[in-house]
Write a structure and sequence with these properties.
elongated, 7tm6_olfct_rcpt, Odorant receptor, single chain, olfaction, mainly alpha
């Protein structure tokens, strides 16, 4: 059986190490050089000779390219979050955990590893559908049309160079910053379980006593030491959570907004496009599954961060404090008030990244797919 460290190393590879290969260092630069002018050029043509049909026709890929550039820009920052913050939160080591906690931590890392591997496979499957040529490529991808018009002698070579880099583009799209959030959750999980264990066992040493006197100095001193240890660890836990959380929150919102724009633009294409798009169904299906898996990762990561603070607060509420002296009760109340603060990736006061938001987005995606299918069936009849 693989050890916890092996699963962490696999997740670290998918999150950070893969971008340390020489080819992965140069590909983002090459993509920026290729995609940035194409976006500017396409924007120029849209403004100069604006036609609604052509705008709608080329808009989805245009927004997807913008999304890719955002991913390329953010990738260096998400990598920095891992190296600067996440690897500094290991206040407790896995060796210090009980067998029960080790089993729970291992299970969490197995889930994260399976998710990352599965999402990567789905991403590469979607990539293949974009690499395989279709008759409608030039009607949907403006860059290919530009290459045909201005570089006909190099068209075949340039198009296949771009298609080869789609692997990198889509991997960055599914991993940034979704994999970072999950990797971050995996490391915080150990700290959460260890803190919960300490809180549950704060009275264990004196559990055999039926009655504890307020004059029992040894007992109250022991409780004070244990309680202040938990308070300090919770402060460290909070600081190590809030700093990268604030950075990650900045990056998540643009991804969500652009994703919604892509979904809306795809629906518009099916309303406005002349003729059948049946040859694009495989691409659309593969993209929808990949997008759903990516959004699921965002939702799981966001919910996991919310659960961290809530679980600690719940355990703290269960602590048997009524035998403690006044000083310890005051410290406990202070601790309880601070633990009430929730960790969230928030977009506004009422919207946070969690299961509820994830389900709403997934429902919207599959509803859109249903609308698209029905529209095409009506076109064909």
């Amino acid at each position: 059986m693989m050890e916890v460290k092996n699963y962490i190393d696999i997740c670290l590879f998918f999150t950070v190490k893969i971008f340390e290969f020489r080819i992965m260092e140069y590909c983002p630069l090459a993509l920026t050089v290729i995609l940035s002018p194409s976006i500017l050029l396409q924007g120029y043509f849209f403004l100069k000779n604006f036609e609604l049909q052509y705008f709608v026709q080329y808009e989805p890929i245009y927004i997807i390219v913008v999304y890719m550039l955002v991913c390329i820009y953010c990738q260096a920052y998400t990598t920095n979050i891992v190296s600067t913050y996440i690897h500094h939160i290991q206040v407790w080591k896995i060796e210090e955990a009980t067998e029960e906690i080790k089993a729970k931590v291992k299970q969490t890392w197995i889930y994260i590893t399976v998710y990352m591997c599965t999402t990567t496979v789905l991403g590469f499957t979607a990539t293949v559908t974009y690499i395989v040529p279709t008759p409608r490529d030039k009607d949907l991808i403006f860059l290919f049309k530009i290459i045909e018009l201005y570089f006909p002698q190099w068209e075949h070579f340039i198009v296949w160079c771009i298609k080869a880099m789609i692997f990198v583009m889509i991997y960055m799209a599914i991993s940034t910053p979704g994999f970072t959030i999950l990797y971050y959750n995996g490391h915080l999980n150990l700290q959460k379980l260890m803190l919960k264990h300490c809180l549950r066992n704060i009275n264990t040493k004196y559990a055999h006593l039926e009655y504890i006197s307020l004059s029992n100095v040894e007992y109250h001193q022991e409780i004070e030491n244990e309680l202040m240890f938990c308070v300090k660890r919770h402060v460290q836990f909070t600081e190590n959570t809030l700093r990268p959380l604030a950075l990650t929150q900045v990056y998540v919102l643009p991804f969500q907004v652009i994703g919604i724009c892509v979904m809306a633009s795809v629906i518009l294409v099916f309303f406005a496009f002349e003729g059948s798009l049946s040859d694009q169904y495989v691409r659309i299906a593969a993209t929808a599954v990949m997008t759903s898996a990516t959004l699921l990762g965002f939702a799981i990561g966001g919910q996991g961060i919310e659960d961290l603070s809530e679980e600690i607060y719940e355990v703290l509420n269960e602590v048997e404090w009524y035998h403690w002296n006044l000083k310890n009760k005051k410290n406990y109340l202070f601790f309880l008030m601070n633990a009430k603060r929730k960790f969230k990736i928030k977009y506004s006061e009422n919207i946070s990244l969690n299961y509820q938001l994830g389900l709403k987005v997934l429902k919207a995606i599959f509803s859109a797919m249903s609308v698209i299918y029905n529209l095409q069936q009506k076109k064909g009849s």
